[in-house]
Design brief:
The chain is α+β, with helices and mostly antiparallel strands. It has three domains: 84 residues, no CATH class; 109 residues, Beta Barrel (Butyryl-CoA Dehydrogenase, subunit A, domain 2); 147 residues, Butyryl-CoA Dehydrogenase, subunit A, domain 3. A four-stranded mixed beta sheet has the order 1-4-5-8. A hairpin with a 5-residue loop joins strand 6 and strand 7. Helix 10 packs antiparallel against helix 11. The radius of gyration is 22 Å and the shape is globular.
C-alpha cells in the first residue's frame, strides 16, 4: 500500500480534524485525557449522537445500513485522527461487534429493530460469552437455552461482562444442543436486559472501578425470533464477530497517544538529576516499543486493504490482537516506571473532574496505575493471546 497520501486524502484528513476539533465537547475531551477507560455512559451516548448526525456513526458498516463508504485509507486516517483528538472510544459491543453480525446475518426485522438504535447511540450492548470455568475455551460454555413454544428458556450465567450494568441489550452464546459437538450445539441470541430473570452483579476490578459484571439467567424467556441465523450455528457468527473484535483490540491510535504521553512524562521526570529521556537504556525501550507499534500499524493497513477488497478479517486478525495488547501493556509499564513511587497511591476518584482534592504527586501521573492494572487483562479478553497463537499456528501456518 502506498503510504503517501493523495491530495484528496489530505483534504479528507483536514475535514476529519476540523470536525473533531469543533464538535467534540471540551468536557468529554478532558475526561478522556484523564480517564480514557471510564468515560460516563451519558458522555458516550452524547458523542455517538454527534457522530451519527455527521453520518460517521459506524464507519465500518455497509452504506445501506448507515456506514460511511470510506475506503481503507480513509478509515486509517479517521482512526488516527480520532485517537489523536482524545475522542472517547465508541461503545464497541454495538458498533464494532454485534452491529456487523446483524448487518451480515440478521433478518430484515432484526435489522430494522436494532441497527438504527445502535448507530444513534440510543441502545447500548454487552457481550455474553465467557462463563465461570469457560473463558478461552468458549466452546465449553454451558448456559442452556431450551425451546418452549415461541421462546427459549435460558438458564446459566456469564462473567466478566463489561458494561452489563449500562447495557440495554446483550448478544449471548447459549447451548441449544447439549449432545452435539461443542461448537455445533451453540446458538447466538439477542436478549433484552430488562427481561425478567436477568440479574446483574458487579465485579470491582483491582483498580477500584466498576467495569465488569456477572450476569445470571433464571428461566429467562427469549423469543426464538431473537436468534441470529440458524439454531446450533452460533459458533459461525461468533467467529465472524471475534474477527472484528480482535481487529479493534489492536488499538494503534491509542498506543500512539500513549507514546506521546510517555515521552512527555519521561522528559520531566528525573533520573539521577537528569531527565529520564537521557537514560540510554530507558530511551532504547521506548524506541523498541515504537518499532513494534509501527510493525503493528502496517499489519493493520494490510488487513484494511483486504477489507477494501471485500474480504472479512481472517485469522491474521489474531496477530493484531497479540501485538496490539502487548505493545499497550509495555507502554503502561514504562509510564509506571517513569513516575516511580507516585504510581502507588491511586484513589478511586482520582480521575473525577469534580474531585476537590489535588492529586497525590504530579498531575501527569493521575490515572496511570488504574490504566496499567485494568489493561493487564488486555492479553486475556477477546480470546487470550495463547489462544490467538494456536489460531495462527493452525489456520495460517497449518501446523
Amino acid at each position: 500500500m502506498d503510504l503517501v497520501f493523495t491530495a484528496e486524502e489530505l483534504a479528507f484528513r483536514d475535514e476529519v480534524r476540523e470536525f473533531l476539533g469543533n464538535k467534540l465537547p471540551t468536557e468529554i475531551r478532558d475526561r478522556v485525557r484523564l480517564a480514557s477507560s471510564y468515560v460516563p455512559r451519558e458522555d458516550s451516548v452524547r458523542w455517538q449522537a454527534i457522530l451519527h448526525a455527521q453520518g460517521w456513526g459506524a464507519p465500518n458498516w455497509p452504506v445501506e445500513h448507515g456506514g460511511t463508504g470510506w475506503n481503507a485509507v480513509q478509515k486509517y486516517i479517521y482512526d488516527a485522527e480520532y485517537q489523536a483528538a482524545d475522542c472517547p472510544r465508541q461503545s464497541p459491543f454495538g458498533i464494532s461487534m454485534v452491529g456487523p453480525v446483524i448487518c451480515a446475518f440478521g433478518t430484515p426485522e432484526q435489522k430494522k429493530q436494532h441497527l438504527g438504535p445502535i448507530i444513534s447511540g440510543e441502545r447500548l450492548w454487552c457481550q455474553g460469552y465467557s462463563e465461570p470455568g469457560s473463558g478461552s475455551d468458549l466452546a465449553s460454555l454451558s448456559t442452556r437455552a431450551v425451546p418452549d413454544g415461541d421462546d427459549y428458556v435460558v438458564n446459566g450465567s456469564k462473567i466478566w461482562t463489561s458494561h452489563a450494568h449500562h447495557a440495554n441489550w446483550m448478544f449471548c452464546l447459549v447451548r441449544t444442543d447439549p449432545d452435539a459437538k461443542p461448537q455445533r450445539g451453540i446458538s447466538f441470541l439477542l436478549m433484552d436486559m430488562t427481561t425478567p430473570g436477568i440479574k446483574v452483579e458487579p465485579i470491582i476490578s483491582i483498580d477500584g472501578h466498576h467495569y465488569l459484571n456477572q450476569v445470571f439467567f433464571d428461566d429467562v424467556r427469549v423469543p426464538i425470533s431473537n436468534r441470529i441465523g440458524e439454531e446450533n450455528m452460533g459458533w459461525t457468527y461468533a467467529k465472524f464477530l471475534l474477527g472484528h473484535e480482535r481487529t479493534g483490540i489492536a488499538g494503534v491510535g491509542k498506543s500512539k497517544r500513549k507514546v506521546e504521553r510517555l515521552k512527555a512524562i519521561a522528559q520531566v521526570e528525573l533520573d539521577g538529576g537528569e531527565s529520564i529521556l537521557k537514560n540510554t537504556a530507558f530511551r532504547a525501550r521506548i524506541s523498541q516499543a515504537e518499532v513494534s507499534l509501527q510493525a503493528l500499524e502496517f499489519t493493520q493497513l494490510r488487513i484494511l486493504a483486504q477489507e477494501k477488497a471485500g474480504q472479512p478479517p481472517g485469522p491474521e486478525a489474531s496477530t493484531l490482537k497479540i501485538n496490539g495488547t502487548e505493545v499497550e501493556q509495555t507502554l503502561n509499564e514504562l509510564m509506571i516506571e517513569a513516575i516511580g513511587n507516585y504510581a502507588a497511591p491511586y484513589p478511586a476518584d482520582a480521575q473525577d473532574l469534580e474531585r476537590n482534592e489535588p492529586p497525590i504527586g504530579p498531575a501527569h501521573g493521575v490515572g496511570l496505575m488504574q490504566e496499567r492494572l485494568l489493561r493487564r487483562a488486555a492479553t486475556i479478553y477477546g480470546g487470550s493471546n495463547e489462544i490467538q497463537r494456536n489460531i495462527i499456528a493452525k489456520a495460517v501456518l497449518e501446523l
